[in-house]
Amino acid sequence: MHNRHWENCLSLIRKEISDQQYQTWFKPIILLKITSSTITLQVPTKFFYEWLEDHYLKLLNNTVKKVLGKKTKIEYVVSEVKEEAKSVNTKRKIKIEEIKQTKFDNLNRNFKFKTFISGKCNSVARAAGKRICKNPGDNPFNPLMVYGGVGLGKTHLIQSIGNKISKKNQKSVYYVTSEKFANQFIDALKENRLKDFTKFYVNIDCLIIDDVQFFKGKEKTQEVFFHIFNQLNLNNKQIILSADKSPINMDGLEQRLISRFKSGLTVELEKPEFETRLNILNAKINNENIKISEEVIHYIAVQVDTNIRELEGVLISLLAHSTITKKPIDIELTKSIIGKIVKDTNKEINISYIQEIVSKFFNISINEMKDKARKKEIVIARQVAMYFSKDFTNNSLKSIGFHFGGRDHSTVIHAVQSVNDMIDTDSIFKKNVEEIKKRISV
Predict the structure, then answer these.
(1) Measured at the alpha carbon of residue 14, what is the angle toward residues 12 and 15, in degrees to the nearest 5?
(2) Are 118 and 273 contacting, i.e. CB atoms less than 8 angstroms apart?
(3) Which residues contact 95 (CB under 8 A, 6 or more apart)?
(4) What is the C-alpha separation between 13 and 2, in angstroms, rounded?
(5) Same domain, 337 and 383
(6) What is the CATH number of the domain that holds 37?
(7) Which pLDDT belongs to residue 2?
(8) What does the CA dihedral 176, 181, 187, 190 come to, rounded to 10 degrees?
(9) How do 38-43 and 30-34 pair as beta strands?
(10) Which segments of the chain have a pLDDT < 50?
(11) Where in the sequence is the domain holding 181, given as residue range(s)?
(12) pLDDT at position 71, please?
């Protein structure tokens, strides 16, 4: 019953503030008890309590009175403070007692390693993250700096690490964007609470800061973060950072701060390759229980090669349009949706693109196609790729041969003739070639 009342309070509060504000300042609050006249809430630190009082007092009081009655008072229990505090006023009183220190974080619980699809584009960063979770703070990857373009999974990965550390090691984990950190610092300066601000951060076991490039030009913020960074590092606390570019390419940041960023492991998240894009799509489809044909999935993976966010955006839009219009998710609908989401959908059909399509169809690697292997299935795949390279591109026979491991023009001529012969004599092979052609040209 009491939990339901508090959930109603949180539901009303959530409508009045941003999701980031809610995750940071209300989600960590724990309901301890509700009586006829009082609601007792546990907060992680005195700094946390003061921030609530200074920034959200009116919202919290009005909401509690609306749900529980106008005479209801709020009492707080601060988990890390042992001494009794003075009454704030007759309606609000802090009750501070010694209790077990609780984990404090504001992570998105949906960001987990099992939902982070691994591929060549991110395997090193993912492996480093898993290693960190075993011994946070005491490992070669402290700090961990993850960088890459928009929508490549930086936030997903760093929060996955945080969630794992929080669950496995019973450590306090705090996630914050650089912009939020800077705003907290400015408010602390204005309100003469810099000491509390610093104390809050240096006592965290694992600090995760997203998009550190936005510290650019904020000299005072960089200075205080530099000192917090050093203190955490000296105390063997884990530091995890993300940015849109490598530290050596960051401008507007102090060199001593960049030096700290480079003192651990710096790893890039790259654009997902074709195989990873397929895996991401299939994982999302299975998770959402969506029915989409393999042809459509393949088409999306080929056309949307920018980032993970756009891949997911296409799927969500397809599902929405299909549900509203009650039309099946087919190639035509997919083309229409992709054209509205992805800027450039006019793929150049080149030899590399053909090799990618053919290797996927025959379930072999492009390297196998290029090397000297004489296995029948690899030879056929190589010949088919050469056949389509001549059909779809303007490359010379010599150029095509060069792209297939440095073979000469006579090998390409032989491959084209062999494919034509098999099309004439083998109906199954003919059907396969038609399917591959369809995949290349969609």
Answers:
(1) 70
(2) no
(3) 40, 75, 76, 77, 84, 85
(4) 17
(5) no
(6) 3.30.300.180
(7) 67
(8) 160
(9) antiparallel
(10) 80-104, 344-345
(11) 113-268
(12) 84
